[in-house]
Amino acid sequence: MSWFFNQWYFGAGHPVLNITYKWNDATKTQTVYMNQTQDGNAFILPIAIDVYAGGKMERKKFWIRNKVDSLVFHSAVKPSLVNVDGDKMLLVKKTDSKTLDEFVFQYFNAPLYLDRFEAITAAVKQQSNAGARKVVIAALNDKYYELQIKAIRGADMSNDDVRNAAQPILTKLAQTDPNTLVRAAAISVLGKLKASGNTNLFKDALKSQSYAVQGAALTALGLLNPADAVSLAKTYEKDSEGALTQAILNVYATGGSDAEYDYVYNSFKEGQPQTQFGIMKKFADFTGRIKSNEQALKGTNAMIDFGMKYKKYGVAPQVVGILAEVKANRAKLNDTATVAAID
């Protein structure tokens, strides 16, 4: 098998596989076209192709040897699904032209995590389709929590059919799912609905021992009632990490006053570069509207220092744009010192 490994070790690039299908009803034949589109020579690849037809699954094994290859086989009925790379073992970049109906079938019938991952990926893009909605709703209770979260975040809650089906499931997940990341994801989606009927759910979630759940709940409450969320956030300042800290920062930056400014300022000053860059826009918005000119100047100088320190990493254009907004807002408040510092 040294030739098989040599093509990866000595060859250039990696396989890029484009898969298309054609069913001929007259001859009862299914053709699978597999085109390698990468530069250079073809990779020789062993592949499993699972054919679902007539209520049964049959695995066909095939070797891809050429840049353009195909497999033709007979079937008494048109297959419901031809699942190329049925064992999901190929190290390739794959473009698979299955229809949405085939992806729906794949979610409910193919056995592997990646089978369902692919199907959810296809379904979330087409939620006006009843089959796609069926996949998204089913995946909210998938046995793999990562796929649950993928479906939760992908559910189009602006679609009435999706929202009506998903909302009671999300409510249950938010309250009782054993995985805290699933609970947090469900709370985040429910929070964006801004439904006051969920207030108690979110407040109960603040009692969780999970920072992820608490952070999602506080953020959701901030969307419903910013002033109330600011008061609640104060009780968690001294015991917060991760998502909860981020939620406190967002709540203060969105609905806080001068009294909360130092917390956000200190978090920005003491944060790691990635954290600083992540919160800078909201920090800048907060800086632009506070009453204290002294505080505004302090925050502005911190952002200028950040931009200068990390200029070599290409952050300057973003920082300049953010500071321009601060300048415009401080000018409206006649804060000449901050405006001059930005100039």
Describe what this molecule looks like in 3D:
This protein is an alpha+beta fold. The protein has four domains: 1-7 and 17-97, Aminopeptidase N, middle-beta domain (Immunoglobulin-like, Sandwich), CATH 2.60.40; 98-156, no CATH class; 159-256, Leucine-rich Repeat Variant (Alpha Horseshoe), CATH 1.25.10; 263-343. Helices cover 57% and strands 15% of the residues. It has a four-stranded mixed beta sheet, with no helix packed on it. The chain has a three-stranded antiparallel beta sheet with strand order 4-3-6. Strand 1 (16-24) and strand 2 form a beta hairpin. Helix 3 (113-123) packs across helix 4. It is elongated. The model has no long low-confidence stretch (mean pLDDT 94).
Instruction: List the domain count as a whole number.
Output: 4
What's the average pLDDT?
94
N- and C-termini, Cα separation: 66 Å
Rg of Cα set: 27 Å
Unreliable stretches: none
Structural class: alpha+beta
Per CATH, the superfamily of the largest domain is: Leucine-rich Repeat Variant
CATH architectural arrangement of the largest domain: Alpha Horseshoe
- Strand order, main sheet: write it out: 5-2-1-7
**So what's the overall shape?**
elongated
DSSP helical segment count:
16
For the record, the CATH class of the largest domain is Mainly Alpha
Strand content: 5-15%
The SSE string, one letter per element, is HEEEEEEEHHHHHHHHHHHHHHH
Major sheet: size, sense and barrel closure? 4 strands, mixed
What is the number of beta strands?
7
